[in-house]
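Example record

Each entry pairs one chain with its bound ligand, phosphoenolpyruvate.
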Amino acid sequence: MKGYGVSPGVAIGRAVIHWKEQIDIHQEYAEDPERELVRFRTALEFAGEQMEDTHEKILHNITPGESAVFKSHGSMLKDPDFVSRIEGMILDRGVNAEWAVKCVSDSLIQIFESMNNDYMKARSDDVKDISDRVIKLLLQVGGIDLSSLSGPSIIIAGELTPSDISQMDREMTLGMASEKGGRTSHTAILARTLEIPAVMGVKGLMDEVENGDLIIIDGEAGLVLINPDDETVKEYEERLRQYNRFRESLSGIVGLKTETLDGMRVDLEANVASPKDLDDVFNNDGEGIGLYRTEFLYLDSSILPPEEAQFEQYRCVAEAMLDRPVVIRTMDIGGDKKLDYLSIPEEQNPFLGYRAIRLCLDRQEIFKVQLRAILRASAFGNVRILFPMISCLEELRAAKAILEETKEELRSQKIPFDESIQSGIMVEVPSAAIMSDVFARETDFFSIGTNDLIQYTAAVDRGNEKLSHLYSQYHPAVLRLIKTVIDNGREAGIPVGMCGESAGDPKLIPILLGMGLTEFSMNPSSILRSRWIIRNLRKSDLEAPALEALSLGTAEEVEEYCAKLLKSLDPGR
Ligand code: PEP
Ligand code: MG
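Structure tokens for the complex follow.
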């Protein structure tokens, strides 16, 4: 079956189907309300046990105050008012338990949300989290546990979310394929970070594959082969060996400088999602962390991560990198990264909606906790702060004002942090790219996020597999915006980096160097290959071709041009 190869490599193994049911709750007449009552009480009890387990797991990372908040979640399950209202509804109105939980929770959420008090508003998230947990238990939904697979497996799914991937058992996940998803969906990015071969956008996949089928994933060609013949298996086993040999050969350039043949130094940094990725950064010789996607800390948790837990993670990364830069991006929730426990209403256009800095400026109590944790970690390394999705100057000013307020709080509490910490913005919305000359006056650095910049410039949802042909990193309009940002940054004397997936694209690297980009941040697995390419290029050969590429009319023409250029610059490739 054909889809899009989103993470390279070959995987051969047995299929494990990961299903997920839509949580769709309807009102039903309960023939036996007493039985419903028992179902409800059992689910409540299990939910309590689950919360207790999670609490124990994270106990060492949280302060007593935060632990109390966690306990209050648990005690809500025993709250007589909450419980009796649900039980009353089941018995008096004879409805199914899940409907009663939903109705009572919705009404509480509405009450909390209408209160003019941040603390009470935040309680609505608690209610949502608890009711979701109980409803999932009642409906027995949730799919397989991806974190503990019983053997080496190929995961087959309708859709895989970023939090599915971040929970995956790395050792046991050989490869994966799904019906939904495109190349720069966050799920795909994580698959590349974890070096798991993956194919997405495979129509009809779930109808064709059964648990236990022998599957080959070809992450380069975008193929999923189901129960292939022996000859095909042998052919792919050979390709797997070749691929592994290629990866090994790159280890020869670990420790070498990243510079062009004519001496231009380039920084090759890594994108990470958690301290778990640090091994990959070191194994691939990353020269810093150019993008730490902190939202995965929030996605991996069933509550808002407390300050202490965040601080520990950020400090761990900052300390591990010694004096090398660690750019910590404030949480970029929203779009395809949904947080169940933050009751964010469904939106018509989530990627254009309440996400990233917009959410943080609206929910300052959440934002400040994160800023405190990042600032505290800055005392332990070379930390920088990055604000995502900035679309106008007002947002940048508001974010900086909150950062200053937070610093002031820490100073008054005598808590150390790096007083000269730098803060920069993601340039990933066309308005920010177009106005980058103005932004450059008020920010310390730019980081170009091509994944979103492409989707917003070309108006193409980055995760929609039906539109993959329109979503291209070679779109001339995107390249022109990139050039504008690099030029404006240089003019203002501030550093410009790129952390979107384009930064690790071998075909684009020569053009980007030609435009003057010197800081690249990418999946750790792309670093050595990129260094090898850069070490074979001469910057002075690239300036004219970069301008030429910018003058082309279509993405296809640009891609073809870039491919030829790469070949001509290194005939041996
Ligand atoms: C980007 O948009 O290019 C980026 C790096 O951020 P993310 O992929 O997390 O949206
Ligand atoms: Mg982005």
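Residues 388, 428, 449, 451-452 surround magnesium ion (ligand 2) (CB under 6 Å).
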